[in-house]
C-alpha cells in the first residue's frame, strides 16, 4: 500500500522519489551500463548523464517537459552533456556544497570527502555555493568547493587531474 501511495504521489508531484532507472524509463531515457558498471542515461531533449559506478544521485524534470533539467548528486562523479540545440532551458547539478548550472555544455562533477569538484570539458559553467556568488568556468578549468565561505578560486586543472576524473567517467 505504501509503495502504491508513494508511486502515485511521485507521479502527481513530478518529483524525485524515482530511482535513476525508474526516472529514466518514465522520462523516455535510454539506460545502458558499460564494462565498468557506469550507467549512461541518454534522455530526450539532448541530455546525457554518465554516472560513475556507485554514484548516489537523482534526476529531476522540474518543468515536466519530458527531459531532466536537474541532478542532485550526493557522492561520486557524473559527467553531464547538454546539447543546447536540442535542450530548451538550462541544466543544473546540485551537491551538498555547490550548484553548477549551464546551458549547453559538458562538465564533470565529483563529490567526495566533504568537497565538490567541477571540471568543464566544453562550454561554460557557473558554479556557486548555495548562498554565494558564482564563478564561471571555461574548458579545462575547475573549482573545488568546500563548506566554507572563502571565495571560490578557478584554476586550470593539470592534465593528470582532469584525465583521472574523466577516466572514471569513461572519457
TrEMBL record:
Cell inner membrane in keyword set: no
Keyword Signal listed: yes
A molecular function (GO) term: sigma factor antagonist activity
Domain FecR protein intervals: 37-125
Residues in the signal sequence: 1-24
InterPro entries: FecR (IPR006860), Ferrdict_sens_TM (IPR012373)
Keywords for this protein: Signal
UniProt name for this protein: FecR protein domain-containing protein
Organism: Rhizobium vallis
